Amino acid sequence: MLGLSELLNIASIRVTFITTEHILHKLSNNSQNNSADLLSFRAVPDGLPDDHDRSPEDVGDLIHSLHMQAAPALRRILSSGGSDGSSPVTFIVVDGVMSFMVDIGEELSIPVLTFRTISACSFWCYFCLPTLIKEGILPFNDETDMDERIQSVPGMEGFLRRRDLPSFCRVKELADHTLQLIISETQATTRSSGLILNTVEPLESEILSHIRSVIPNVYPIGPIHAFLNKSRRSSMSSLLTEDRTCMAWLDVQPPKSVIYVSFGSIATVTRDQLLEFWHGLVNSEMRFLWVLRDNLVVNADGEQETCVPSVAAYEKGRIVSWVPQLEVLGHPAIGGFLTHSGWNSTLESITVGVPMVCWPYFADQQINSRFVSDVWRVGLDMKDTCDRVKVEKMVRELMEEGERSVGMRRSASEFAEKVKSSIDEGGSSYAELQRLIHDIRSTGTAGEVS
After folding, report:
1. How does residue 301 score in pLDDT terms, banded at 50, 70 and 90?
2. Strand, helix or coil at 220?
3. Cα–Cα distance measured from residue 434 to residue 133, given in angstroms and rounded to the nearest whole number
4. Beta bridge partners of 42
5. Per-residue b/e over 144-178, b at no fewer than 16 CB within 10 Å?
6. Residues 6 or more apart whose Cβ sits within 8 Å of residue 56
7. Name one Pfam family in it (predicted).
8. Which of 271, 303, 359, 410 is the most buried (most CB within 10 A)?
9. Average pLDDT of span 354-358
10. Quick one: 128 exposed, middle or buried, by C-beta within 10 A (0-12, 13-18, 19+)?
11. Report field, pTM of the whole predicted structure over 0.70
């Protein structure tokens, strides 16, 4: 969302960035705002207590609370009409799980675009969930064969398995709150004026064509971070403090010799899982740069634990709390990425041609990892397993010279070139971004985007 705001700023469009008080506090602690004249921040309550951890497992509670608590505050901000000294809002770009904003937009006669920050393939699978329910594929039961092929998601018939469906599909009751919430919010996208996706036409062209059959106005404008890099700009803030000492360590490592390990900003692991990864990485004898967040390890009750292996026992490894990921992935020393398959991480890795080992955690990540391994063939899928033997085997297969490794690197390099071409003038993402900017401007030059 911040990256999109920055792109609109570059186009001289004034943006009001509305987020929750919880997130704005984190942004304020790590702010690097380069566009104070064109970007302003406003905060609304999310309705959850300050000590709530807002974990992925509780995403349903968060979304429900936002619908109840944030809607009135958002309506007040958007309906002020410049009476508070700001420019009147002429356009709304809203997160895809906040469909109530479409109602507010209609009430105030302001057009609304939905921005889904997941992949196109994940969004399309979400959209097809009612069909999976109708055909009896959902819900799962104790006898479910997780490797059974799914034939009910157009464009994915040849490779999608039950285990590749979003994590919230692994429920035994259709009444599950999160499942029903994701279904209703995704279907509501058809009520907005269009859909923005942070993806690239050459990467997901077939899936985008299926999405356009139900949502004709789609803007695939990604990768957003690549546009910002090309403009010599970067996303303005990080929610975590970066440890840049890792860059000097990478500088003295041989080319393509280091596997970068990170499970993103919200995924968690148990102590046993962490140790399996540790032993697998050490046994592979590969150099590694591993991000271990303070809140990465949890116990069976979801409570935070402290368990950081001693890197002194393995001189080829380095452990840090957080890194400038775009710089790390683009460093010549990086030869592979062990990732949770979040869409940002996946797209960032594809953009620089770095192959992946995927260990998806939740939501869209299960589908992303299947596309990485079996569609784009730029990595290996390790979902639903976590043992040191498998970790060692896949890390070696990715990093060592071999027929499969060479094939993955070739595919990754080819997709990196396609991504680069897409953001150049005349490329598909460049054209879609210009169309988005034109459509926003055409609503009135005196106002601003929210």
Report:
1. low
2. strand
3. 38
4. 18
5. eeeeeebebbebbeeebbbbbbbbbbbbeeeebeb
6. 266, 267, 361, 362, 363
7. UDPGT
8. 359
9. 98
10. buried
11. yes
